[in-house]
Amino acid sequence: MAQGMKAEPRVRVSDTARHTITSGDGAYRLGNDGYGWAGLDIPVPNRGCPFEVRVEATLHRAVEQEEGTVWGYGYGLGVCNSWTGSEAQGFSLQYAFRKEGREVFPAHSVQHYPEVNSGEPVEGIDSEGATHVWSIRYQDGQVALTQDDGVRLGEYPAVRSKGSGVSLLPQNCNGKGVFLRVFNADVTFRDISVTELAD
Asked: 83: which residues sit within 8 A by CB, 6+ positions away?
């Protein structure tokens, strides 16, 4: 039987983030003028139990960068994340766009922070419209992504080892939370819920 857990978002920002934050009535509007870390950290008090996060996200606008550069903007939806004090580490779906001159291209991907720009592209995301409802389900070490209550976009490993060498990635999801990140954009997150699922 599914059981709702209280979602208590905490604002987290790195020293390098140029950000603005407003909140009220269960909505959090974040603006971030760069790639510094700014977002909402939501604790999930579980020990690896399956859970689902639902959130409505509205991308209001990109924060324009220097003309002539190639840059990205959007937001990240993370599960199995830990906040280090300067960044989040763990799985993240990047709802992102790349801007080259006047052209905008979708650049949606799955990342495992702190490694960036090394993930795999995610197909099937409808980039039309500014507001989407996301469902992110964690179960048995896998993360399933659904947009606007439609079909699943895919299923991905929640944690990833780096083969040989030292990895800063979380080893499991025990005691890890949800992190909603904003970069080079102005985004509102609302109606955030976390539900513990039956095994």
From this structure: 12, 41, 177, 179
